[in-house]
Each structure stands twice: as structure tokens, then as C-alpha cells.
Amino acid sequence: MLYVVASGATGFDASGGFVANGYAEHSPGGYSMTAALVIEVVLTAGFLNVILGATDGRALDQVWLFWVAPLIGAVIGALIYKVMAVKEAK
Question: Is the pLDDT of residue 88 over 70?
Fold first, then answer.
């Protein structure tokens, strides 16, 4: 899936270490060990915070809102588009 997305970019070349893990000389971008350490720590902490927040017993009674509201918004958006869309002449 990553290959399909990345290959749509102009100048994409999979031979340059596409989706390679590493730092310094093993990093396609040449990122340092410090950069890799900081981003791994920060993003993992954020990811875990989202998971724990979403599964916390105190939050489960509110999860319905974050499922229902986007669905209602999608329906409203589709209806607005249907009303406002100009029909093509045949």
C-alpha cells in the first residue's frame, strides 16, 4: 500500500531505500540517531495516548458521538452536493 501511494509522487524511486528503517548511513534521508530516537518516542507516546484515551472506561460512554457525528456530517455533505451539483447536459 505504501508503494502504491509513494509511487504517485514525481521522481519516486524505490531503489533508494524505500521504507527502510535506520538512521545515519542506513537512512534514505540521512537522519541522525537523535532524530530517529526523538520521533519514535514522541509518536509512540502520542499513539499510545490516543489508544488509552479511546479505550478508557471514562470515555466509552462518549465514543458514540465520534461515530455518529461524522456519519451525520457525511450524509449532510452528500445531500448538499446533490442539491448544488449542476447536472451535465446530454
Answer: no
